[in-house]
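Table S2 (text version). Query chain:
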Amino acid sequence: MTATHTSTSHKTSGRKTSSHSSSAKSTTKRTAASKNDAIKLLTADHKEVKALFKDYNKLAEKEGPADERQALAQKICLLLKVHTTIEEEIFYPAAREAIDDADLLDEATVEHASAKDLIAQIEGMSPDEDLYDAKVKVLGEYIEHHVKEEETELFPEVKKSEADLAELGTEMATRKQALLSEMGVDALA
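Corresponding structure-token output:
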């Protein structure tokens, strides 16, 4: 949230010199703490979930055991719920403040709502029920589309902005761990 405040003060600053020096500081912060970079954190989540969907699809194609499919689907759903929460609570508000593309962020929010609906359906089903595998597959397709838009459109815009990605990343990582703990998960790779 502090990054949002910093970004707001940039916009209200009337002096070019203070804005320039603050921007230089922001870049320095981003470089110094790049391991905590918000976009790197989100991209790592994207890769992890993509791999899990790939594993699920292989298992479903082979008509793998229901308990294995369900465990994998539950892990996917849990990770997506945590991911969407940190995006909606921290990243999207900071991005709205940092870039001038409300439509892109509005679409991302609607895509999250569709994904959450499917997640709820999957979590309320048994893997032996009709359409279970189909719903997991469609969720994967939704997520693939959403990830492509974030990584090719949203993230590049945010990278070019004055958002402090290191500070955002630290805040998001802390919130992610808290959410995982609340859900009874110690840590996920």
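Notes on Table S2: The CA atoms of residues 30 and 166 lie 5 Å apart. The helical segments are 2-12, 16-32, 38-61, 66-98, 102-123, 132-160, 165-182.
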